[in-house]
Amino acid sequence: MTQPSPQPLGAGHTRYMALAQALIDDITSGRYAVGALLPTEHELSAHFGVSRHTVREAIRRLSELGLVTRQPGVGTRVRALRGASRYVHSSTGMGDLFQYVRDVRLVLEQQIEIIADEELADLLECRPGQAWLKVAGERRVAGEEQPIALTQVYIDWAYRDVLDGVSTPDLPLYAMIEQRYGIVATEVRQQISAVAIDEESAAALGVEPGTAGLRVIRKYLNAAGEIFEVAVNLHPGDRFSHSMTMRLESGSTPGRGA
């Protein structure tokens, strides 16, 4: 069986993401042809010096991208040399937001002052009349013609200068605020909901009005429990999926109806 290319798993990625990328590189380069079997979990674990759990998570990501299929009793078989046009965001914590920014480029198109009316104040959890910096743009993956999302970010007015001279951020906006103003994001609240994409957004995303979409809202809080940034991302449903790993604390007991 063909062995994967020897390469170190970089410290800048979670280990399963680094392993997944190494396997993607081997598949897209033709090292593993369509229809070929990948090495077994045991072989990959030994070759890369990682746990079987790490291998399974890496294979799961390849499966989500449409590159492989898993067949019980047979193994993991390559089904395509190029993944489907969909971005899969996998996360175990706030650090994985940096991976999202490495993969996805935010192109800024608008920066304006906005005064929160009652509807916006409800989203931002602030009082009506409060000023915010509204940033709007597109999120793009390298090599793809269409954006994977439209983005609106609301930044507390106290941090309005964070994007001075920046058109394409190379860090998450919350991290830029942390670096410039010395605050720390201690909590992120995330809500994902299914929506029908409106006509204006559909035109920007290159889809039909009414297409199924995902709205992802993230609220960033500082140590005092105050929201300093709210990001709203609208994705066509066929271009984005989100997976999250949650671990139970030792000794915890699942509640009823879980």
Explain what the structure shows.
It is a single chain. It is built from seven helices and ten strands. The protein is α+β, with helices and mostly antiparallel strands and 258 residues long. It has a six-stranded antiparallel β-sheet with strand order 4-5-6-9-8-7. It has a two-stranded antiparallel sheet with strand order 1-2. Strand 8 and strand 9 form a beta hairpin. Helix 1 crosses helix 3 and helix 2 crosses helix 3. The C terminus is likely disordered.
List keywords for this structure.
258 residues; alpha+beta; six-stranded antiparallel β-sheet; two-stranded antiparallel sheet; 10 strands; elongated
Overview in brief:
With 258 residues, the protein is an alpha+beta fold. 26% of the residues lie in helices and 31% in strands. A 6-stranded antiparallel sheet has the order 4-5-6-9-8-7. Strands 1-2 form a two-stranded antiparallel ribbon. The protein has a two-stranded parallel ribbon with strand order 3-10.
